[in-house]
Amino acid sequence: MEGCHDAGCDASEIDADSTLALVGCPNVGKSVVFGELAEQYVDVSNYPGTTVDTTLAEFGEYKLTDTPGVYGISAFNEEERVTREIVLEADAVVNVVDATHLDRDLFLTLQLLDMGVPTVVALNMMDEAEADGIDIDVDALEDALGVPVVPTVAIDGEGFEDLRERIPAATAPESTAVEDYYDELPDELDATRAEKTLLVEGDEPLARAVDVGGVMADGGSPALVEPGLREEIYGERRSRVQSVVDSVQEITRTDDSIAERVSDLMINPLTGTPIALATLGLIYYFIGDLVAQRLVDKLEVAVLGAHYIPAVESFVAGVLPDATWVEPIEFLLLNDNLGLLTVTVQYLVGALLPLVVAFYLAISLLEDSGVLPRLAVLTDRGLNRVGLNGRAIVPMIVGVGCVTMAIITTRMVGSKRERTISTALLGLAVPCSAQLGVIMGLIASLGMIWWFGYLGVLLVVLGVAGVFLDRTLPGQSEPLVAELPRMRAPRPGNILRKTYNRAKMFLREAIPLFAGTALAISALDYVGGLDAIKAGLRPLTSLVGMPADFGQVLVLGLIRRDFAAAGMTDMALSSAQVFVGLVVVTLFVPCILSMVMILKERDAKSALLMWVGSWVVAFGVGGILAATFGVVGL
Ligand SMILES: Nc1nc2c(ncn2[C@@H]2O[C@H](COP(=O)(O)OP(=O)(O)OP(=O)(O)O)[C@@H](O)[C@H]2O)c(=O)[nH]1
């Protein structure tokens, strides 16, 4: 069935096979509503903008599509374009409205109704409205809007029976205040009410698609209407929203709740900074120390290293026949660098799995409690200087746990440009905890001053690289959307479910990639490729004042960063050499698994540029430090 947003579309047009879109502002509970209606879990987060991909599900005889949260139907950014497209295609909309934010959310509702989109309003978060002393006269709201309004508490499944029942009655008022503006459009234009409304609001994709007489796939000249018209229509709609809110809502309590007071403390730089540092410290302690060091150490070494690897080795040796052709197979499966059944499994199960689970657990808690967006607001200004916004704080912290993991979290930092910058910075100068552990051990014997020197160099490189990328990459980074979700007690069920789902999805995508890479590197190793690389690296190792053996360290670094740092433990080096060597291995290329992830999350060109860039920066900075300290490799 075609979209039916023309004037006069009524309930009878919504029948079996109709497509329903779930539309609402960010963080109003759409994902929970979707889960309730479709009986299917989608990622629920107390963080605006977590629904980036859309999900389609069957709901009774309808098809139901989840959409990214938007404040209005327009096409200024990626989320808006996705939602706009879905709304234009849909037969009806379930508009989720946050009862504690009527004044904000009803703009979208009225816009949908102006467009003639058959709508049912799910007035969600009624529990929070009640707690905040917000009294809404639902019948009056229904009368004012002219469409069904159903109060819901999505997390408790309240109101859904009613909602399901009233969806077939989705409708839109026959006429709209916006119709007066349609006169601005060419007389011969053949467009639906939805299209006309968007056109008078200056919708660019539609304006570009207009040809004489109709809306076409492409062609025609953009800007059909005066540029100022949008503001006029928006202003008029906002005043309609205000009068609806004034007539249906009464606020009986005005003092701040505890959650609001905590929130204020968190975003005030004076009190927020120590809270943020403590939170970051806690995350680091949990992911970087407790899990990445202790648990992973136990699992990787004491369990898998001591029991699993010997067992699999003897099993494979027992199964494979004793013949020369078996040798390469045995090497691919069992070699000590990246054997498919040995080190690769040891890494995936012993390190990556616990890290992934720990990470998702921590992030889910931070998201659902509302701490995460407040951290983003606090760190926003500093990160702006390097072309990022506050949302990038998470990948940076996570990177200190595991860079591979952090690269996935760059999904949440906003535009493609910011994702590229944060990925590049992560790959370049954020040491992962496994590497940091070994590095700390090595530096501890040199003294505190070297430790600060090491951190100082990394910060300078991060700053310079960030500013460089910000200036050279085309476009501009997006500002942080300032709207803060409310602070809530996380729901354990949701945290566990989300962690499980995210970890499962991650592993399902990552395991084949890692296995393939391990096989390819092992094959290269078998034919002597890694030794050849080591010999070829000699000019570079002397450039940074390191002995020839440092080539071996770099080859290990291509595979895993902590291997590289660990490779330096039994080399005879001066203090300055240890320092320079550690800076070089930190800035050196991301480990092979991070590279696989960069390839997957970005594209081949960015991955190659980042890889080559790391060589240049590592040896450039290493060369400067070597010259400064006068270190010479033997
Ligand atoms: N108290 C309360 N919390 C709710 C209700 N509905 C949803 N939530 C919580 O609100 C937060 C946001 O819910 P989501 O379903 O992720 O919101 P969304 O609209 O899909 O958000 P985006 O996808 O980011 O636009 C989560 O922490 C939910 O647990 C409700 O009726 N009452």
Q: What is the domain tally?
A: 3
Number of helices: 27
Beta-strand share of residues = 5-15%
Are any ligands bound, and if so which? guanosine-5'-triphosphate
**N→C terminal distance:** 77 Å
Indicate the overall shape.
Answer: elongated
Main sheet: strand order: 2-3-1-4-5-7
Query: Sheet with the most strands?
Result: 6 strands, mixed
Query: Helicity range of the residues?
Result: 55-70%
User: What's the gyration radius in Å?
Assistant: 29 Å
Count all strands and give the number: 10
Query: Which regions have little confidence, pLDDT < 50, spanning 5+ residues?
Result: 6-12, 216-223
Mean pLDDT across all residues, rounded? 84
* Class of secondary structure makeup: alpha/beta
Architecture blueprint of SSEs:
Layout: E1 19-24, H1 30-38, E2 56-59, E3 62-66, H2 78-89, E4 92-98, H3 102-114, E5 119-124, H4 126-131, E6 134-136, H5 138-145, E7 149-151, H6 160-166, H7 193-200, H8 204-209, E8 210-211, E9 214-215, H9 229-248, E10 249-251, H10 258-267, H11 269-319, H12 326-334, H13 343-369, H14 371-384, H15 393-401, H16 403-409, H17 416-429, H18 433-444, H19 448-472, H20 492-526, H21 529-536, H22 538-543, H23 550-559, H24 561-567, H25 575-587, H26 592-601, H27 604-629
Helix pairs in contact: 3-9, 5-9, 10-11, 11-13, 11-15, 12-20, 13-20, 15-16, 16-26, 17-19, 17-27, 18-24, 18-25, 19-25, 20-26, 21-23, 23-24, 25-27, 26-27
The protein binds guanosine-5'-triphosphate (GTP).
